[in-house]
Records
---
Amino acid sequence: MRERGTPVEIWTMGIKAVLLSYVAIQSYESVDLISTWYMLSILIYLCLNISIHIVKKASSKSIVLLLAMLAIAVSSSYIHPLFMLLLPLNIYELFAIYLRKHGLIVLLMLAPLVLISQYAQSILVTYGLVALLSFLYNLLLHTYISRMTDLRADLENRHEHIQQLTKSLNENKEYIRQSDYTIKLEERNRLSQEIHDKIGHSMTGALIQMEASKRLFTSNPDKSAELLQNAIHISKDGIETIRLVLKNMKPPTEQLGINRMKLFIDEFSAKQTVRTSLTHEGNVDSMTPIQWKVIQENTQEALTNAMKYSNATVVSIHIQVLRTLIKVEVSDNGQGAQKVIKGLGIIGMEERAASVNGTIIVDGSRGFSVTTLIPHG
Amino acid sequence: MNVLEVKQLSKKFGDFIAVDNITMSVKEGEIFGFLGANGAGKSTAINMIASLLRVTKGEIEVLGKNIAKHSKFAKMNIGIVPQEMAIYEDMTAYENVRFFAGLYGLRGAELKERVIEALAFVGLGDKHKSYPKNFSGGMKRRLNIACAIAHRPKLLIMDEPTVGIDPQSRNYILGSVKKLNELGCTIIYTSHYMEEVEEICTRIAIIDHGKIIAEGTKGQLKAIITNQKNISIEVRSAENLNKSKLEAIAGVNRVEVEDRIVKVTSDSEINNLNRIIQQLMADDLEIRAVEENEPSLETVFLTLTGRSLRDQ
Amino acid sequence: MNVFRIMLKELKVIRDPKMLLFLLVSPLVTMLILGTALTGAFNGSLSVGEINVLYKNNSSASDFSRYWDDFTGQMRQAGIKLEKADEKTDGKTEVKNNRYVGYAEITDSGLEYYSSSQSLIESGIAKSVLTAFADRYRLAAVVAGTDSEQADAIMSGNGSESYVVEESLNATRKPGAMDYFAVAITTMIILYSALTAAQLIDGERKRNTAVRLLASPVTKIEIFTGKLAGLVVLNAILTIIVVLISKYVFNAYWGENLGLAFLILFTEIIFAVSLGLGLSYIIKGNASGTVVMIIIQLAAFLGGSYFPVEEATGFMGALSSLSPLQWSNAALLELIYADNMSATINAMLLNIGFAVVLLGIALTMMRRREGL
């Protein structure tokens, strides 16, 4: 739906106004007496040409156009031949509804020349000029409008395309994130299996050796000492393995949840001049990695926006985990915006939030704030 | 059938998005509350439903029919009580209602009957011949409502119908709203007064910056924040308290005693106050005061939108 | 039906006594004040004095002398004194000295007339009477060849064919101050309805009742038409009352053709209402009221509501012809005092034509707009 007036109408009305003033001035100079009938025909012309734009149906439009042409014909033959000059535009308008070929229309616009050559030779040349100029004007307008429409449609398509791409990108990212997580789980699984298999077995081996050493302690002390030494070796290796495995398995705490967020915020404030603060309430541990990911990316976007536009000196991030909702608010003390206009950044955040059934609230009334709401639990 | 069905509704004013992709439905017999700060998009959404504004994007269905295609049908079945007084001061109360009801195709004896009925309904039965310019704020508000109900709409939209009036008139209006609802009228209600919404609405949507950020019954909305309620019972002496029996009551999660106050934390969805009190009485504790603290809608609103409804 | 309901609602304004008083009393009082205060400015009571014409009869035709004597007799009764000059007198000098308003010299070849440049009106009257005589004589001379009785009849003339019947020469039929202002103030007060019209739709918006109207199953066009019709009917009623009061109480002269006068006024109402409405759509907000007010004041000033502009020439004349009131005023005066219909049709066509254009604009803008 177009909220603003279509420019086509304004352009057509413009050329009509120009022609009408030409006709009025010319005929005034040639007759220098404006009769009532003259005024009346101009008024009728105005009425009909305004109503063309009021009626919507093509059929009623044609009727109005026919009436307008009739009025022009009558007034040009009875009142002043110059009125004829107003005809070509209406001919174009009428036939443009039905005919695709512009060549035909220009012929129709020139057709009245035959009549004029017999009855009103004085305006023959002028009519030809006006008809051709009107035709070119309309052709130009038509080309320009259709190109505009095409471009607009194209733009809309592209926009939709971008949105789809953003969406699938987010979904893909999500998929990567998910599979990442699954891989990690598998890895952990494998590790614990390894611990169980390797360390478990070596410990059992050490235990058996020690058991044997205990039996041989009195009968064969030397053999016993050897077995014991063996057990000690096995145990040492075992402990080493445990340490190694544990070190490999346990993900570093700074890679997870709120800590990762803290790290990110610290990095950000180290690079930028604004002061940042991160606060949280509720059970942040219950949040899933996907949620963290969305939140972190949105926070990043919001911080970037704040740096770009707000002139803020303080940016605060507050994470609140409610019972069935997570609320993350990134707000600054900058100039804000009376009217928030959705740019690609906000749309991106919206898309990300939507991927976990959440929404974004952007407020510019008290500084600038972006709130991400994600259902949870 | 849903009385109202809104699908992905948006409204743009130039670059500004007043209503952003909202989807919601109102079932028959509901009193549906719209909570939101000024400029949150409530009125814009309502005005689109009442065909006062063009829809930028999305669909609205009233009683299963698209309002763009069945505009007359939708309008016949909707009544609107605008936020501002929309009455002619130079016409009597009776004439005001008759004029507006007449626009809905009511004629003759039926028209007269409905007008009288509507005026009586809002308690202006004895003011037929009075001019609204001599009315108090509350009476004008009531006339404003009468003008919207004389044609018996299936869906009544009330935009802040109680702004700036005395408590008595407000109670009367709230009573009328409930009565209308009982008579089968589905109602969409917006208000700044949280307690009104809490009192009469069966379902509530919180709207902020053109988006519905939460929707559900009072309980559901409160449960977003917490499902716990705190009951504080002041007793004369808590010595005889049988803590384990109290904890055994369904829903009770924790019992703490502070001096002479017994603090019980319980699931807010379970109504167990009676049983708790009975248990305390069985233990022969003299109850002095009972206070139940549930998160209010105000808290929910404040938490979700970061501002209070009142601080406009 | 809905249109009718909305129209009836608009008419309820009449019940407000203050409003009614304002709408009815203000034009009547203005009429009374201007009509009595400015009496002197109008020459309606100025009578033409005795008209003395000098003549010399050099004709040889006996018939002619008979007819001429007859004619001078008739003219004396009408206040035109035809005096025979003696041979010595130089008629032209006498006229130059302003002793006579004209000098006629009759020869066989025709009648020559010298008119005074000082008393134009009197001389003009004499000239037209003499021309009429000459014409008749020429006719009679032709007829006399076949039927002398007929010729006598032509020359003596009966009641209806008297030489002095032209009503425009009758002093009582020139507009007096009250007659003039009855017309001018009525047309002006009609133009004031543009002010109400400018508030017509905006008023509904301000009272928020536009919301209810739009929410009801009534189309915008119906609302528009109903309100417009209400205003037109209201003003038509008021105009009729004002005209009738001015006619019967103030004794203002409204001519023989009252129906046609009302028709002109009615088209002016439609024009005024469309003007206000059109401008209220073109210029948004309160500015439209101010613009309409300025237009009304200019139109009233230039269109002759406060003083007659018929004789205005040059720049002022050009300006006054731009005033929409001028068409209606001129048409009404022509209709009342000259029974001239062409100006009437002119004015009606102009009023309706402009109304249609303005309403067209208003309707187009309304369709575009959200709300009313």
---
Amino acid sequence: MIELRDVYKTFTRKEVKIEALKGISLKVEKGDIFGVIGYSGAGKSTLIRLVNYLERPSEGQVLVEGHDLGAYSDKELRAAKKNIGMIFQHFNLLESKKVFDNVAIPLVLLKKNKAEIRKRVQELLEFVGLSDKAGSYPSELSGGQKQRVGIARALASNPSILLCDEATSALDPQTTRSILQLLKRINAEYNITVMIITHEMSVIQEICNKVAVMEEGRIIEQGSVLDVFGQPKHETTQNFVKTVIQNSMTTSVRRTLKAEHGSQLYKLNFAGESASEPVLYEIIRSYGVKVNILFANTTEIQETTLGTIIVQLQGDPSQIEAALDYMNKHEVRIEEVKSYVLDINHK
Amino acid sequence: MFSTSITSEQFLKAIIETIQMVGVSLFVGSLLGVPLGILLVITRPGGVLENKGLYTVLNPVINIIRSLPFIILLVAIIPVTRAIVHTSIGTSAAIVPLIIYIAPYIARLVENSLLEVNPGILEAAEAMGATPLQVIWYFLLPEAIGSLILSLTTATIGLIGATAMAGTVGGGGVGDLAIVYGYQRFDKVVMVATVIILIILVQGIQSLGNTLARKIRRY
């Protein structure tokens, strides 16, 4: 478990103070895959470095497994760090050492004996699928393979937490996917809590169960990925969501729309159960409302289907009212799309 | 025209003296310079054992010694030399100033080599909970080893140049031969021969350093 309590971090460079973090509070529960997303400069790198005290907070507390890292002596802190694995964007492997020795380093630091090290390293290399590369140098590996070595190294000391600092940002989409699947396996098989920082929404979508969105040193939105993706409140969050889920009408549909009297546009958001129920059929049949579908899309997040439909409803206001009521009861989240008439008038 | 005033024995003796002076001062100079270089890197702001006091003393002291021309240093520290080797002339008397000359030079070269190590690797080491000594031993030095060998190669060649001036205190060596017989007595044969020997020596050491660095890196 990781907990940040009202954390501030200020850097002073050449007499100029830079506030990197301005009052961050968050809680990562055991077994979570917690994503932190933000544009560069949002402070997410600083944030993840606080969790293993590579950076110390200027104010506030960082608690790992219930212990305040600030209360530890240097020695205790070093011991605590062995419980927190970390992987990096640029892998940070020792170029002078073979894959085997790179993975063995945390064990060497722990002064394990040779037989134990050999057994553990072989086990780890097998887990990440690199048994045949034990004798290679990092420069002979591809980016994805290097990150696998990084992961094996991070797991060597049996940590309960794994920190991923932009771990897939230097990889191509396909390699990214395979690394993410590996992280998911680590989380599931070893029950390791994973904290990921990234600027790619697809990373969050693919493996995280919780997400925090950062901007200018603050968390502007956090919660379960499903909630944040389903109903992004902040503009930055909406922009991130847009990068993986298209949720607005195409321009050509928008252009051909006619602003008719007695018709209104609604964005219907379905999640989970409601996504598999014939809600639209019901409102047509029972309330006699004309439904014109302008946009529809479904996305899977956290093994839950998230559906978005933009409809134009035509009919008697009281019928429309009743239809909306019905959908509300069936857990369809309804947003009125107001701007479309204005849009059209402007064009 | 090809006549010369020195014997081949003299020549051989000079070569041995040069090798002695370079060898001993390189060895002792490294024993002092390598730790000093490491100290410069780890105590600098942001280093693994940041120590502003030590760094701000060490840094200018090394600069001051390095700014003295060797010929001046040689003479200036005669009392120190006498205290250490109980004589102020001869090969062993030349070795003391050579060490004092080369140690800060090696410290700087080592500093540069270590600063080239990817900071990400040190961050990884810190994230693993490595102690400062472990950071140096398991991360910093192995990553810099190739570059360190090249640095020591440069230092060795610098030393060969400095030994030429060791003749001032009767240190002998090939460089001294070149100055005393070749330059001051216009003995062209000695001049050419010493230059050729120095070229071979420098080339050999550089190639050796390059080969060693490449072999040890293997990546």
